[in-house]
Design brief:
globular; 14 strands; seven-stranded mixed sheet
Length: 228
């Protein structure tokens, strides 16, 4: 499904990915292991090839978003893989630290999920404020909480926001990240305030169709409700 000019939402294993089809190809998230065939099939239908893939941007370090990275770039050293440093650190934790007790059970559960996540090779840092040369400028917005290194990606020209798992849809309404799968749900809620300051018409969600029903108003409503 093309959700904006040159932007395709692709069903992968575990979660959807977003393909930015310009002169070269960029993929936002990579699904779970076993997703390569699904991407290959979609690209063939577009008359493109996985050999044109230039970069993979990881919104956060969970297995349904970065588990498929290594199979997508196997045999190549010319594909950039970008992830926030906080999540790269998380998926590299040794088991004893992943199992360490925490006052908040969500943090421990989150560390265990990241421990089970395959580590992509040769990652580059995806820092807050970085602007990538895509869609006229694709800006990284650090929105910690679901994971410490969760990021959203904002393209100002098409007013398009990629949110990974920072947002979900519950009973037909835009909502905060999953409480069960978030490291720090209170922080995840608070992070929405950064998104409410953006001019957004379309929200690209990893597990749902795009949200276009007063996207700006929905973000502002969530941000206001997140304040204690």
């Amino acid at each position: 499904m093309e959700i904006a000019e040159g932007v395709h939402q692709i069903q992968m294993r575990g979660a959807d990915s977003f393909l930015i089809a310009e002169e070269r190809l960029t993929l936002i998230d990579a699904g779970m292991v076993g997703s390569r065939r699904m991407l290959d099939r979609h690209l063939r239908g577009m008359g493109r090839s996985i050999d044109e893939l230039e970069r993979i941007i990881c919104t956060h370090g969970h297995p349904d978003h970065i588990g498929g990275v290594n199979e997508l770039v196997r045999g190549r050293d010319d594909v950039e893989v970008l992830i926030h440093p906080a999540d790269l650190e998380g998926i590299q934790l040794p088991l004893r630290l992943a199992l360490a007790k925490s006052p908040d059970g969500g943090a421990r559960r989150g560390r265990l999920i990241q421990y089970l996540t395959p580590v992509p090779d040769n990652c580059l840092p995806l820092d807050d404020g970085l602007v990538l040369p895509l869609l006229g400028g694709l800006r990284v917005v650090h929105t910690p909480g679901h994971t410490p290194g969760s990021v959203c990606l904002y393209a100002e020209r098409p007013r398009l926001l990629f949110t990974g798992d920072v947002l979900q849809v519950i009973r037909g309404r835009l909502d905060y990240a999953s409480r069960l799968f978030s490291h720090d749900h209170a922080l995840a809620r608070a992070s929405v305030e950064r998104l409410a300051a953006l001019e957004v018409e379309t929200i690209a969600l990893s597990h749902y169709p795009p949200w276009t029903d007063d996207a700006q108003g929905a973000l502002r409503e969530l941000a206001a409700a997140a304040v204690p």
